Amino acid sequence: MLNLQRLAIFVAVVDAGSFTAAAVTLGQTKAVVSFNVKQLESELGVSLLVRSTRRLALTDAGERFYQRCLRLLQDAENVLDDVRRDHHGLSGVLRITTTPEYGAQVVVPALAAFSQLHPRLRIQHVSSSYHADLISERFDVAIRLGQLADSSHRAALIDSFAILPVAAPDYLARHPVGSLTQLAQAQWIAHSRLSSPLSWQVITPQRQAVLFKVEDAATLMGDSAAALLAFALHGAGVALLPEWLVRPAIAEGKLCALLADHQFPAQSIYALYPNTRHVPEKVRAFIDFLREQVATGG
Hints:
The chain is of the alpha/beta class. The chain has three domains: 4-70, Orthogonal Bundle (Arc Repressor Mutant, subunit A), CATH 1.10.10; 92-159 and 268-297, Periplasmic binding protein-like II (D-Maltodextrin-Binding Protein, domain 2, 3-Layer(aba) Sandwich), CATH 3.40.190.10; 161-266, D-Maltodextrin-Binding Protein, domain 2 (3-Layer(aba) Sandwich), CATH 3.40.190. Helices cover 43% and strands 23% of the residues. The chain has helices at residues 4-16, 19-26, 30-44, 60-88, 100-117, 169-174, 180-184, 225-233, 243-251, 281-296; strands spanning 49-50, 57-58, 92-98, 121-127, 141-146, 154-161, 163-167, 188-191, 199-203, 209-213, 220-222, 238-242, 256-257, 267-273. The strands form four sheets. The chain has a five-stranded mixed beta sheet. α1 (4-16) packs across α3 (30-44) and α5 packs across α10 (281-296). The longest helix has 29 residues, at 60-88. The two termini are 48 Å apart.
């Protein structure tokens, strides 16, 4: 029978990169840490780590076992959290990742309100344009926008939003855009994660679906919606951005929505969470809370 504490020590060694660093993190001696890992390898009958003078490395078996340990330890922690909840409300740690823009505007305010309802719950929010791996980086929930790629994770639909082609008035003074043809010939600002070529299915005012395709490669590229917004505000070209992000700039006259009678495909907002046998109550509760906050404009 595997010892969960021993698994936790093995994971700590992998994360820290050495027995010495793991011992400091765990508050134990290096000898105790080394002994537990050796005992684990003995019980399994395989080598998990390759030891060198500089840094430890995982064997192939160790890599597979490490990933399973992460899931097993997370499951165990989730079960304990739910047992504690029965007596004290939600507790433990809720770790969430979002894009910086949607996180700041929507998710962080929701987390602040959720925290007030569950004061024993510790919340960690990480904002990044990079799509983190939920298991290896130990996130409970990831909020993802756009088209959802195939994934082994579970996904809960939170909401959907419109995307708008926008440009600054000074750019439009130099390069008027009054048709799809002119829009296709514009200087485009694109997200670096967007598939190439730049093309979308667009609904015309006559309710016809047409394939819109930008003629040339993007003039500028950025790795976040905030970067694309900044480029557009400075008159660098046309960007296709979420309506919720550009609404203030349009209202202030800093940006113009182009071809307002055309519709670009709506994008979805999903909450992704690991596909484990036991979904923790804190995850279910926050997803329900966020969906309600978005629906009511809270």
